[in-house]
Amino acid sequence: MTSKEILAFITEVGIVPIVRCSSAEGAIRTVEALYRGGIRAAEITMTVPGAIRALEKTADQFGDKLVLGAGTVLDQETARACMLAGAEFFVTPSVRASTIEMAKRYSKVICPGALTPTEVLAAWEAGADAVKIFPCGNVGGAKYIKALKGPFPQIEMVPTGGVNLETIGDFLKAGAAACGVGSELVDNQSVAAGKFDVIEERARQYLAAIARARSDMKTAAAG
Fold first, then answer.
1. Active-site option among 32, 56, 88, 132
2. Among positive and negative, which fits the CA dihedral 128, 130, 134, 140?
3. pTM, whole model, 2 decimals?
4. Is 143 a catalytic residue?
5. Active site residue 146
């Protein structure tokens, strides 16, 4: 897929689960649970021990049935390794031009992290496909996204931090392209205990919340 197709797919899904756990096997089984729950996108962070191997195994298992991403990508070398392992998109905690350039060179999606208006614009001008707004919950949550979308309606934003079942609809209504969700969806306790059915059920709940929010948005637009 091209970067535009990858981003469109992520936007359609509406949620990017952040898989950050203590083992590669746990990450693989988590992605499997998310898939069973209906979510067709996932981000495995580079803080997972054996993260590259987890990416490879997950990419081999799901192929084009799931859009797989790499998170906490700090440099272009890591981005390149993740891409070779099967990652279609990259999420970074900050703006680094060389990492963005690597993603653009191979038509992959890059979503660098930013918070202030100056950082958001800098990320966009550097070539970001979307900007990860982090830590969004600490600075106003959905209201902050709405405030940023005022001067930057052209910038796709993926808020991360402060997104949960109760707030994800508010973030989408505020203008988020999709939302990054971490421990509220994938918690270490469930993974460690092997309770992947809990994660599967949460995935369904998040998709239902997204569907409700989008229905409300359509109704509001029609009215």
1. 132
2. positive
3. 0.96
4. no
5. no
Residue 107's pLDDT band (cuts 50, 70, 90)? very high
CA distances from 138 to 29, 53, 93, 145 (A): 30, 33, 15, 12
What digits encode the pLDDT tens for the residues 132-144? 999 999 999 999 9
Q: Which of 32, 43, 88, 200 is catalytic?
A: 43
Please provide the distance, in angstroms rounded to a whole number, between the alpha carbons at the two ends of the chain. Answer: 36
pLDDT at residue 100 tops 90: yes
Residues linked to residue 160 through DSSP beta bridges, in sequence order: 180
Please report, as a single letter, which amino acid is at residue 13.
V
